[in-house]
Amino acid sequence: ASEAEEKDLVIIGGGVAGYVAAIKAGQEGLKVACIEKRGTLGGTCLNVGCIPSKALLNNSHLYHQILHDTKGRGIDVGDVKLNLGQMMKAKDTAVSGLTKGIEFLFKKNNVEYIKGTGAFTGEHEIKVNLSEGGEQTVTAKNIIIATGSEATPFPGLEIDEKRIITSTGAIALDKVPESMVVIGGGIIGLEMGSVWSRLGAKVTVVEFLGQIGGPGMDAEISKAAQKSLKKQGIEFKLNTKVLGGDTSGEKIKLDVEAAKGGKQETLDSDVVLVAIGRRPYTAGLGLENIGLETDDKGRLVIDSEYRTKIPHIRVIGDCTFGPMLAHKAEEEGVAAIEYIKKGYGHVNYGAIPSVMYTHPEVAWVGQNEQEVKASGVKYKVGTFPFSANSRAKTNLDSEGLVKIIADAETDRILGVHIIGPSAGELIAEGTLAIEYGASSEDIGRTSHAHPTLSEAFKEAAMATYGKAIHF
Ligand code: FAD
Ligand code: NAD
Questions:
Q1: At how many degrees (to 10) do helices 454-465 and 423-435 cross?
Q2: What are phi and psi of 111, to 5 degrees?
Q3: Would you say the CB of residue 43 lies under 6 angstroms from ligand 1?
């Protein structure tokens, strides 16, 4: 395309938010280009986030299961060995297949892919520092910023991605460390902590708050998850603050202090994973050239139609408000294009599921019990344990429960919380229920195939307004 040609839309960032918006724009017949500096499409999620972490979670789980959970199933295995290099290769294959898939979808949907770093030089103009050298100026009627996020650093601990690592180092270690301390017991800490614990590292999670799982997880479910992960060998230090660290010796020394009482101790480890959250990434974007500012958390400020104060410049995904989740970014990518093309769009932020891919998995949608209680709404709770579900029992994988919170007056489902086998798949039904405003009785009176894990969801719903049959 010629430099002079004005596009209908230019998107900065080819992560989930940006690439989905680009494909949708192409489908809507907009003349669209997407600028990405990484060298591959798919952003954090496909390259260093969701996909590689799930490849490692899946295969480390299989390894761990073969080591510890085959005898009772009638399977005698011989010598089991870890081939970490091959496990990493399988992860890389998953990543490259999926990122190339996005490139194919760009071609199919007439999206121009510009490889390079984009920066604003005007309200309709972006200068791209091309990856292969040189510059290109792109002008557009509409611009979407989708530049994503980066790991929040821990002050005083310099990230080298070898000994002091973020999730990016944690998906690429070349040997299993003897010991690992994880700072932050949120989703990244627990997922990556699980991977390395299963592969043989002694993992200790240091969490500032009194519960694990990060913001949003129901307190009862969080306790159950902690119990389960502890049984697998992960050690937890909750209500504990990291004061600082010393990386000069062979072992890294972290000084930690209990929030109550102030008792201090030093933790030795080979690797420290910093997983205390992520922050929006807008560095080098030239925001100052167009007078756009970020808030105190680094987020670009937008209205309900994703518009900045310069209305033809919109922002979606991790670099603005809301949960930092790939499927949230994806919904916004579609909605932003609908606003541009049709003038209306919609994302239901009350029905965005969260999944933690540990074993057992944890998944939830809607409000947790703490939130419902604080809102003052009268509510009822129905639970059903997987230990009473025929399929979970048959599969010898019956840890966990389904918990449904419904409005006591209207019976409308307010929140669904699952810890257990395939929780991440089961939560889709809860999300659909909340999206459609279902009551727990709607679910309880819907036939669910037998024997399936989904019957636990139906029975938890029955327990919300009446009684479960099997418990
Ligand atoms: P990003 O994916 O970060 O993409 C932004 C892109 O913009 C990047 O590729 C960047 O290179 C590019 N960019 C930035 N500035 C410029 C510029 N000036 N010019 C050109 N390009 C630029 N979410 C889930 O829902 N499920 C999961 O299982 C999950 N697992 C995760 C595991 C890990 C270890 C991590 C770190 C995150 C995980 N997430 C998960 C979160 C998910 O990755 C993010 O929410 C998602 O990637 C956000 O998409 P985005 O497009 O907003 O940003
Ligand atoms: P998080 O916000 O989920 O958890 C961070 C945890 O660190 C919190 O529990 C917090 O209390 C704790 N913490 C903060 N400062 C601390 C300190 N100084 N000392 C000790 N603990 C401290 O963040 P994350 O786990 O880093 O994940 C970042 C983002 O990536 C999240 O938004 C998450 O949703 C997303 N992500 C999602 C998935 C998934 O969907 N499966 C997987 C990985 C990451």
A1: 50
A2: -95, 130
A3: yes
Q: How many CB atoms lie within 10 A of CB 109?
A: 15
Could you tell me the distance, in angstroms and rounded to a whole number, from the CA of residue 95 to the centre of ligand 1? 14
Q: Is 417 a catalytic residue?
A: no
Q: Average pLDDT, whole number, for the chain?
A: 97
Numbers of helices and strands, H then E, in the chain: 13, 21
Half-sphere exposure of 298 (CA within 13 A, CB side): 15
Whether 329 lines ligand 1, by a CB cut-off of 6 Å, is yes
From the CA of 447, how far away is ligand 2's center (Å)? 37
Is the CB of 190 within 6 Å of ligand 1? no
pLDDT for residue 223 is more than 70: yes
**Distance from residue 314's CA to the centre of ligand 1 (Å):** 17
pLDDT of residue 3: 55
- Tell me, what's the ipTM? 0.99
Task: Supply the pLDDT for residue 1.
Answer: 44
Ligand nearest to the CA of 34: 1
The size of the chain, in residues, is 471
Q: Whose CA is nearest to atom 9 of ligand 1?
A: 43
pLDDT tens string 133-162:
999 999 999 999 999 999 999 999 999 999
Average pLDDT over residues 424-451: 98
Residue from 118, 122, 128, 117 nearest 290 by CA: 122
Q: Is 277 in the pocket of ligand 2 (CB under 6 A)?
A: yes
Ligand of minimum distance to the alpha carbon of 216: 2
Q: Ligand 1 within 6 A of 50 CB?
A: yes
301-338 as b/e, with b when 16 or more CB fall inside 10 Å?
Answer: ebeeebbbeeeebbbbbbbbebebbbbbbbbbbbbbbe
DSSP letters, 197-230, are: HHTT-EEEEE-SSSSSS-TT--HHHHHHHHHHHH
